[in-house]
Amino acid sequence: MLSSAVDGIRLSLHVLAATIWVGGQITLAGLVPSIRKVSPEVTRVAANAFARLSWPAFVVLVLTGFWNLGAVNMSTQSTAWKVVLGIKIGVVVVSGISAYLHTKAKSAAGLAIWGSISGVSAVAALVMGVFLSN
Ligand code: HEM
Q: Which of 30, 51, 85, 95 has its Cα between 20 and 30 A from that of 114?
């Protein structure tokens, strides 16, 4: 069945924001080793430019995530669906906090650890979102 226009807008915004938050982190992680060889300063400029896109995308993800919840009839969802939703929300919180700690990290180890946690938890949130989608 074709989605209604409102459902199409809601899910398109959610998925578009996910492409920026999740895909952007993976793309930046792939580019950084090459950029760093040219100039560590340019790496910082690129990371700051990405942050100006990724944090608004994260806000859109959370807002449209709650919009998704409003559009779902909870009483018809299985216990498994609700458990996956609960885990997903926890993983989203981890992704946001670890991305913030990544931006504040000073050491190479801190950058690597918080960046990896943010990336892995963002991918986990995306996969769980796909399983939640009806
Ligand atoms: C890092 C943050 C997030 C990512 C990457 C993400 C990703 C996704 C993706 C890819 C889908 C599948 C869309 C589709 O196949 O049509 C989805 C669906 C969904 N997401 Fe998220 N999401 C995030 C945050 C949230 C939050 C914070 C909530 C709840 C507060 C949420 C609730 C939902 C729900 C309920 C669905 C199913 C929507 C439906 O079937 O109508 N998401 N998410």
A: 85
